[in-house]
Design brief:
Layout lengths: L7 H35 L3 H38 L5 H29 L15 H22 L4
Helix pairs in contact: 1-2, 1-3, 2-3, 2-4, 3-4
Amino acid sequence: MGDRRVNANEIGLVAAVFALVGAGVGIVGAAATGWAEAALATAATGETARFGPVFVAQSYLAATATVLVAAVPLAGVIGVLVGSRARGVVSAASTCGLGTGLGALAYGLVAVTVIVVSQGDAATQAHGIADALLPTLATAFVSGAVGASTGVLGTVMR
């Protein structure tokens, strides 16, 4: 019967890892988009200055998309690691699935918020937090599925 237990501590640990990584990725994303904003709009002249806000918005969108895509491989790695410690397949799937799904949601919300809050004056056409909500939810769902699947694979490593 130990196979069916969900380990709440491990779910919390996985979610905390995702949130911390999300904060770090968000800070790096904010630095990169700030650099792009300075290069494409703030210090730009001529035609670059004219189209700068469009380029800035695209750089914020690209950074946000990259941040969200990175959650899925993280879910895979964490799923294998946590799943290798699970008591059984059902426990691995449920613990890793919930942990990586909730963790990826926290990761996405933290990272996207940091990137959006860092937007400067030239980012008037860039996305907001609400604009990224659906992709963040999709990322959490897919990360949860990947985490559950790789958690099951991790049970083989015992």
